Structure formats: C-alpha cells, structure tokens
Amino acid sequence: MADPTGRTILHINFGDIIDQPLALTGATKYRFRFLDVAALAHKSTVHVLEFEDLPAEPYAVISYVWRGLPAHPDVKSPLPNIHVEGIEGADPISVDVLRLISLAAESFGCRFVWLDALCILQAHEDDKAWQIQRMYDLYRNCRTCIVAPGGLQRLVAPTEETSWMARAWTLQEAIAPPMVHCIFEWSLGNCIMQSNFPLKIEEIERGVAAVAPLNFTLLTAMKGTGFEMLDWSGKSIQKPSPDFQIRMFGDRSRSHPQMRELVDAIDMKGKTGMHTAIWRCSFMRMAKYPVDTVFSIMGIMGVTLDTTKFGHDDRLEATIALMQAILARGEHAEWLAIATRVVPNPRLSTLPAFPQTDASRKPVLESREGMKDVADVMDTGWRLADTPKGTMSDDGYFRFSALSASVRLVQNQEEGSTAFESEFGSDSAGKWEVLSQSSENASHKAVYIGRWEQYNNGAFGVMRNPRDHALMLIEEHAPGRFHNVGYAFVPEGVLTTLHSIFKLPRGLVLSSVFPTAKVDLVANNAGPNSISNIYILRGAKVLTTGFLDGATAEWNLGELMLSLMLKRGITQRVFA
C-alpha cells in the first residue's frame, strides 16, 4: 500500500549543496514528487518526497521561466544555488527564493510545493512524458499557484519587465489552479493598489517579499499609473514615484494583448468562450519545443493527448489532434477568427500562421504587411458566439456545414465606405460583393461563422460593434477545393439587402440575427426536406466541398435556416 505521507528521495541541508547538478538518484519513474514546505521555510533543508498519487494534503505549485532575470551582481546571498541534472542551460535555482516561496505556500496552508525542475526526472524523457500528461490535473488540484515572473535566481520588483507572459507553459499555470498569486520583491508593507478594483498586497517577509492575486495584478498592470495606494485601513499612502506601475508582465503598450486575453481566459474559466481566449494566448507565447505550445493548453481544454506520439517540432500534428478531440465532444470551433489580421496558416487555414520569434526571442505574427509584434495584429476583448461544430480528419481536413453566399472581389478597391449594402469590406482581404444570383463560376464564398460578442469585464468599457456578423472568405482553387483567405465583419444591413433580392419559399417565418444572405443548399439522401452544404477546409490546397445527392437550391440564409430545418424534422449537422 502506498505511503500517504510520501517516500523521501532527497534530503540535503542547504550547507551541503555544491555547485554540481543535483540528481534524484533514489527516485522511481512515473511518480509525483513534492518539496516539503516546512523543511525549506524553517529547517534550511531541501526535502523531496515521492507519491504514487497526488497527496491528500494541500500543496502549492510554482510558475516561473527557466531563463529569467539574472541575479543582482552587487547582492550576494549566503544561501547556495541549485543546479539540476538534465536541464543544463537553465538558470540556477536560488535556495533563498525557494525559501521565500515556501513561506508564501505556508501562508496558504500548504504542506508541499511542486517545482518542475526538481519534481520531474529531467534526464528521463519517459518520465517527462508521463508528467506532462498529468500536468493539468496536478495544477487543477493544487491549493494555489505561486508565480515568480522573473525566474528563480531572484525575485523581481513590480517595475521590472520579465518574459513570463511570453512562455507557453505559464498559460496553463495561470488558469488551471483554483487560486494564483504572484510573489515579488517588496519593501512597502501591507497595502492596497486601488483603481476600480482593489489589489491587496500582503508581505511574506518584512521588507523583502510580498504576494498578490494574479488576476488583480494583471488588471492593475493594464491600468498603468491609474491607481492610488492605501494601507489596509484605507488611509492613503504615497506611491514610490509618480510614474510607478507594474511591469512584471511586460510593457503596458506592447503586452496589452497578452495581458487582456489572459484576463479574459481567467474570467471565462469553465464557460463557453474560454477556448477562444486560450487559443489567442497560445499564439502569443513560445516554447523551447513547438509541440509544447499544444501540450500546455490541452488540459485546459479537457484533452489528454499521448505526448509520446509527437516529436518536438510536431506542432501542426498535435494541433490537429487537439482540434479532433474538441470537435469529437460536440464542441464549437472556438479557434475561428482568433487573429483576423494575421495571414491564414498555409497548412491549416482556419488558424493563423504559427508565430515565430524575433531577435529578442519575442513572438511575432505574420500579417500581409510582414512580420508584426503581437500587439499590432492580435485581436482582443471579444469572441465569436455560435461558431459551427464539426469533424476533422487525421490530415487536417476540416469538414463543416455552414450558411454561405457566393461573392467576388470588387474591382474598385479604393478606401472608403462601400457603395451598396450588398458590398462589404475585409481588413485582411479587401472589398467584396455578394452576387445577386447563384453563380457556379464564382471562385469565392463568404461563410457565416458566428456573431461578435464582447468579453464582459468590469475593468474595461463596453464596446459596441455594428458589424457583428462574422464571415470567413474562402477561395475555390480546384473543383470542390477551398482555402481560407480572410475574414470580414458585416452589419445586418448587408444581409437585409439580400433579403430583398432573393425570394423565400412561402410560409417561412424569419426570426434570426442573421436573416439575409444567400446560401447554396443541397438535398441529401434523407429526403426532399433535408438541406446541407458541406465544406472541408485545411490549408492552401485542400479538399473542401462535397455535395451530397440532390439538386442545388438557393435560399435566404441565417439561423432562420436552422429554424426551418427543425420545423421540418431535419437533424442539422454543423461541421466546424
């Protein structure tokens, strides 16, 4: 029977730690390992225990970057650094920082703390794969996550910039736990940073370090200097300087999209709409191995992939597997239109092109004007509601049924408003015109994929968007073969114009937020009332439409079609 108190696999006093890689020679593969909080905080000892299952007693987890800010050259700690076998190239770990984190964990009632560097057998790929598959559960079941944004060589001051927000694994660490707190260098005592919400800062060691909730720390960082400081009694106190602001997650102007989407993901945790924010966050973060950008979000999305089936560079293949699993549960394709100003991925065109890194190792995205900082091209603050559902094949072919219209590019592409309500513009693909009749020769279609909806958060103002109907523009490059070329957001007026052009069958009741665009429909073997239009999209050269048996018909489009089908007893399969 497993020992619920754990089995000791390492017990070493601070004074006995030498400048050599530390190995967990007594460890057994495929086990959970934790550091003893009391030993670190009060006994000057690193005590690692091993468990067959997650411990019943409360534990904390640590979120940090392997390569953070360097130690202060003029500050010499009397405590040693730890080097871990198997992660050569990563920063050494300051024992003093671990001690402070353990004090924070203890303040939240935690008996243990988990640190990937010491709790995963870094020199054994099979143990790492086992741990990664269980990582989400480990974070989900902790009492709190403690974020050290600048790494583990030292704590950072709130005013110092770090790379924590740009790393892939920190996304899961910020969302999965029930509570998340930041730890940072602090000498101003217990206080509150007050804007339209309070950020409570609590000292862990007087004059040395403090903790604060991550979500309110992010929101305060986005406020810049727009807050006042109070003591815990509510009395105003002076800021360290007039321009004092939190920069631990990056410069406010450059890192706003990353901070905003993380806030949205935290706010939407467990709700429809969270996945859109997660997908966006993942495209603004990087990992040593590209496949980790998928492994780091799969658990949040309720998926456990077999990590041994993918190589370090298999981001595309792992992404397809993740999408397949999401769609197989009957969920919506919430990744559609996550970055409408970024060029479509040439191999999986319903996603943006995967990010690259610039010379400073920061993520950049490809627009039609070239490589851009994520702050310049990433969409934030909204999601698409009612995106379609569907299936995806192993090679990434994306099959879905959607309401659509034949369209063509407008010859006069000069800037300005569209001349007619049958025309609409796309920020990424120019001006388009909806054709007034069915055209078998039309090479493009506009496919309705959802309705624009703001993420509601008390920290941000309410946005109004009159162009709240989202279309995906697809191009036919071979018979029945399409790829995504961009997105457009159109007002209801564009669709209302179509309502006056096309006649509906008598007796239909139109009650839809999207009532007025044209769609090609095909009767299938289920009977004369069964209507379907199937698209299969992958990348630039993709199998896309497959018409079932029956004749093509023209109808006015909208969610009204769903009503029509339901009234006629038709089961609607919507493919994403």
From TrEMBL:
InterPro entries: HET, HetReg/Transcr_Mod. Pfam families: HET. Residues 59-150 form the Heterokaryon incompatibility domain. PANTHER family: ANKYRIN REPEAT DOMAIN-CONTAINING PROTEIN 39 HOMOLOG-RELATED (PTHR24148), HETEROKARYON INCOMPATIBILITY DOMAIN-CONTAINING PROTEIN (PTHR24148:SF64). This is Heterokaryon incompatibility domain-containing protein.
